[in-house]
Design brief:
mainly alpha; about 240 residues; 8 helices; 2 domains; about 60% helix; flat; two-stranded antiparallel ribbon
């Protein structure tokens, strides 16, 4: 649906990636304040026991912050400040087990989890799909149309390839992309654009880190495009008629 189209008051509004990225950045900033604050305090206390206890406490807070907040209130502080809420498929908050599982999956998959967003009806990342949840606008009255999408209907009606065919073709393209990525890395090593010490032993200089960052971002963008076009039936081999 176009962001300028009118939306019914009771229609769920699913957060765009840019909005979710802002929430994650705010939570990350809070985590950094906590970590550096704890380090400053620990470096000024004379008790090793107290310093270790503070370290354990900080780790526990970082691990339990998101699951507990999502379970009890439906959002972290970052979500709340950006007008977002994590919603279970039944319309309520996730239970504690699902909130923990969602956090673990998101931590393990990292940015790759968000590749599925543009290819799903409700803008769901992989960790949302696996825990049967969505991230929605908390208060629609405070949201601009550019901050959300409504449920997509691209495959309503005839003319679309089957779900299985789209999945198989998309996976084939993803495998091909990874092979091309490996070839590109090999060519960069041969050309001296990236050092072998960085690639094989993680001993990277500033230039290596820039090249690695650019290559990773390029790969993520390509993979996201493949997933999006594949699921919408725009890849050769599984095109929508």
């Amino acid at each position: 649906m176009s962001p300028d189209a009118p939306t019914a008051p009771d229609t769920p509004r699913y957060a765009r990636f840019s909005r979710r990225l802002r929430a994650m950045f705010l939570d990350w900033a809070l985590a950094m304040v906590l970590v550096f604050g704890a380090l400053m305090v620990a470096s000024n206390v004379e008790s090793d026991v107290l310093a270790r206890a503070m370290g354990v406490g900080v780790v526990l807070i970082l691990l339990l912050y998101e699951p507990l907040m999502v379970w009890r209130g439906g959002s972290t502080l970052g979500h709340f400040w950006t007008n977002l809420r994590v919603v279970a498929d039944d319309g309520g908050n996730l239970n504690l087990a699902k909130a923990l599982g969602r956090f673990v999956l998101k931590s393990l998959l990292g940015w790759y989890s968000f590749l599925s967003m543009a290819a799903t009806r409700r803008n769901q990342a992989i960790h949302d799909l696996l825990t049967r949840s969505t991230v929605q606008i908390r208060d629609p009255a405070k949201a601009a149309p550019s901050q959300f999408v409504t449920e997509r209907r691209e495959f309503d009606g005839a003319g679309g390839p089957s779900r299985l065919r789209r999945t198989v073709v998309t996976l084939a393209y993803l495998v091909a992309c990874f092979f091309l990525y490996v070839i590109a890395l090999d060519l960069m090593l041969r050309a001296g654009i990236m050092s072998s010490a960085c690639f094989y032993r993680s001993m990277c200089n500033g230039g290596d880190r820039i090249v690695d960052f650019v290559a990773t971002i390029a790969l993520l963008l390509v993979l996201a495009s493949v997933v999006t076009f594949g699921w919408r039936g725009r890849l050769f081999g599984a095109r929508k008629t």
